[in-house]
Design goal:
alpha+beta; two-stranded antiparallel ribbon; 37% helix
Length: 350
């Protein structure tokens, strides 16, 4: 397939402020941190934001794959639906699962599970007749990310036992870091017993939290996505992904330390060439009442400087600014980004 979008990326540079929250916890329940530029920053791992983004895509019409350790039982159910007895289904499910995963999470689609069931049916649901190479061929032929697993195309998958089933991720997420120095704080709390006969708390405890303005960098490789989707439904995938990126927030402690804060500002660029994120190596100092405006100034200034320094290698095709013009909504941004994704689909239908 001729890929006119090869090496073309949409890069999201997002600033998002959160008040009292613990968006992403470490092994002792404290908000994650990192030392950047010699000072402690608040941090949210890329994984903590990728999963809610992936799941949120379902709300915008995307058909998602399944990421699970329960590979055998999923395939067994498909075999049972195809006419296998309970014993046959279980044996076939277990056998095919061993060809794909050894007690690790596997990212696959229900279409692939049904294809495995059809393959098992052709072998009379006799698990001993099932071959690993044949099972791998079945999966490779059945997978169509544009139809039933766009998240696999976006976030990629690795199948250690079958390299031919690997899918290169089209997205790249950095760890979100605060643009400024952050120190975690401690909340002391008590809980009361509704049926208590004596005054006093029934439970006491403490939780750590912080507040921060985060810089989030996300890259969407349109060329890779075009290749994986074989040119199908690329603008729709860009729309679903961008909407999910806009609304998704990590789920940690959302009932007690709600973090329902939207994007404050975003620079979104369509570029060819190497990815480029802002390091915020120098911690921002509060100005004009907070961190957001000096963070915006530092972000915009850094990108403008890098554009000059990179010269022709910067490869900018378009730039959009969200959050400063009230007449430019997230819908306007999405509509603009979809025009850059349309080239692959047009090229593929000529």
């Amino acid at each position: 397939m001729n890929n006119p979008l090869k090496n073309t990326r949409i890069e999201f540079h997002i600033l998002q402020s959160f008040p009292v929250t613990c968006l992403n916890r470490d092994d002792v329940g404290a908000p994650k941190t990192a030392i950047v530029g010699g000072v402690q920053r608040a941090r949210v791992s890329s994984q903590a934001w990728k999963r809610p983004v992936r799941l949120a895509m379902h709300d915008f019409g995307a058909k998602l794959g399944v990421r699970t350790k329960h590979v055998a039982s999923t395939i067994a159910q498909a075999c049972s639906d195809a006419g296998a007895t309970e014993e046959q289904a279980s044996a076939c499910g277990e056998m095919i699962a061993t060809y794909l995963s050894k007690d690790t999470l596997l990212f696959f689609t229900l279409t692939e599970a049904k294809a495995f069931a059809e393959y098992a049916k052709e072998q009379d649901f006799d698990a001993k007749k099932l071959k690993d190479k044949e099972a791998h061929k079945v999966a490779k032929k059945a997978l169509n990310p544009a139809i039933d697993g766009v998240d696999i195309a976006l976030f990629g998958r690795m199948v250690a036992q079958a390299a031919e089933l690997n899918v290169e991720a089209a997205t790249s997420f950095s760890h979100a870091i605060s643009t400024h120095k952050v120190s975690n704080e401690v909340e002391f709390f008590t809980a009361l017993d509704d049926l208590a006969t004596e005054p006093g708390s029934a439970h006491m405890g403490s939780l750590e939290f912080n507040s921060a303005t985060y810089y989030r960098y996300v890259s969407l490789d349109l060329g890779q996505l075009c290749q994986t989707l074989a040119g199908q439904s690329l603008p729709e995938a860009v729309e679903q992904f961008t909407k999910a990126l806009f609304v998704a927030v990590p789920t940690a402690r959302q009932t007690t330390q709600s973090g329902a804060s939207p994007w404050e500002f975003a620079k979104v660029m369509v570029r060819k060439g190497q990815r480029l994120q802002v390091p915020f190596e120098t911690a921002i100092k509060a100005k004009d009442g907070g961190f957001i405006q000096p963070s915006i100034d530092a972000l915009a200034g850094y990108l403008a400087k890098q554009e000059k320094l990179h010269g022709s290698l910067f490869g900018k095709q378009a730039e959009y600014t969200y959050g400063q013009d009230e007449n430019f909504s997230i819908d306007d941004l999405i509509a603009a980004l979809k025009t850059h994704a349309a080239g692959c689909e047009v090229e593929n239908h000529e």
